[in-house]
Every structure is written in C-alpha cells, then in structure tokens.
Amino acid sequence: MTEARGFPAFPVRSRRRLHTWWGSAWMQAMEDTAVDSGVTRRGRRSAADGRIGPIAISPGRAAAVFDGAFRMTIAVEPLSDNAWGSLVAEASVQSGHLAALLDAFLPDALSVLVPGIGELDTQCGCDDWGSPCQHAAALCYQTAWLLDAEPALLLTLRGRSLEELTTAITQHHANPPACLADAEDAPDTALAAFARPVPPLPEPPPPATGELHLLDIEPPPGIDAAALHGAAATAVTRARNLLSPTQPPRVPLSVTPKC
User: Fold this and answer.
1) pLDDT per position as a tens digit, 162-201
2) Which Pfam families does the entry link to (predicted)?
3) Domain ranges of the chain
4) pTM for this structure?
5) Please, are residues 33 and 125 in contact by the beta-carbon 8 Å criterion?
6) Which site among 95, 112, 132, 172 is 20 to 30 Å from 123 CA-CA?
C-alpha cells in the first residue's frame, strides 16, 4: 500500500502561476464544477495567504487544516483495474514515458491519471454549503502547485505508486500479451510469404461467341435512349474484342437499340 506523504505549509504570498498542463487540468476539474466563481477567486487568494497548514497526500485524497480550525479533504477516485492495465500498457510503449515521469513531466499518454470534471470530491468542516467552499478551493490550488512540481503524486492520489508502475512495466515487458508476442514473429512470417513461388495464373475464360445482348433498362428522363444503348453496345463490344486475342478489335457501326 502506498504510504501517505506530508508537505510543509506554503508560506505567505506564495501565489504561483501554473505552467504545466496537468496542474492546470487539476484546477480546471475543480473550477468547472464550482457553483460560484467568486468562491474560487477567494480560494485562490486564501491559497496565497499562508492560512493552510501542512498538506498530507495519501491514497485517494489530499488533506489539510485551514486556520487550525477547518479540516479539508479532496477525495479522488482510485484507478480501476482496467484503467490501471491501460496505463501500464501505455507507459510500456515507450521507455521515455516512465523516464519523463521520473523527471517531473507527465506525458500525454498517461493523462488518465489526471482527474476530470466531477472527479474531485471536496469536503470541509466549515458551514459553507458550496462544493467546493472557499477553503477546499484553496487546498485544490495548493495541491495543484505540488502536482506541478511532482506529477508522480497523481499516482498516489489514484491509489498507486511510482514503484508499482515501475514493477508493472517490467512485468509487462517480461510477459507481453499474446497478441504482442505473436506480432514479434510477423517479420519471419512475411519473409516466408514473399519467398513462396508465384502460383500460375488460372486459364482465361473462353471468348464470348454468342449474340450480343444488352440489358433493357429504362433510360432516365432527358437521356436519348438510342445514344445510351449505342454507347453501351460499343463499350461491351470493345471489351469482348480485347478479351478475345483471336479476333481483331471491331466496333459496330450501328446497333439497333431496344426501346
């Protein structure tokens, strides 16, 4: 189980500008569900006033105390087994994905870690009925600052850890899915296919010797029936002559159409 981690309180006037896409997306998930934009503005100011104590990041939640009185929490839904399997598969595609995460960068391929709109459940001990309230919004902003600097904390908030991801990627490479294992043999199969001799072509069909018959189709309005049947007869005759090497190409001078 991933252990909780504690972070010291941010000092006064610690207003920061997010510069990562995942930190901004975290805040967007909170701001887009706020009933009153004024609450988020007050929360942003409170985040910079040094009134929030140390922050604890543990599996599924972030928690802190506001002014030593109100306890605030942000609950995050853990990754399901299917979502975790997809994350491991995406991270295993390129070794650079894990390296980037270790270097404090979250690749787009691992965006499933970032909560979306409605996936942050805020709670506070104050009397404000809003969700989030001013205090919980302030904690969201400060948590975004932590994520901005260390995106691997998203794994903790999702109930996992960087160590688990590293181990899962190693196991994925050691035991690839059957479809991937079969794909590794594809080059040999392709070479074998190209090495096979080309089979002989089938015998051509016998040349048509019967009388030429055209389908009696009603022409659309405005089309000359005689011209349409004549063009069709010419095309069919040319095709027949081309397929019959024993006969020189002939084009009939006239064909009586069926009207």
Assistant:
1) 999 999 999 988 876 555 444 444 455 656 666 677 778 7
2) SWIM (PF04434)
3) 5-176, 208-259
4) 0.66
5) no
6) 112
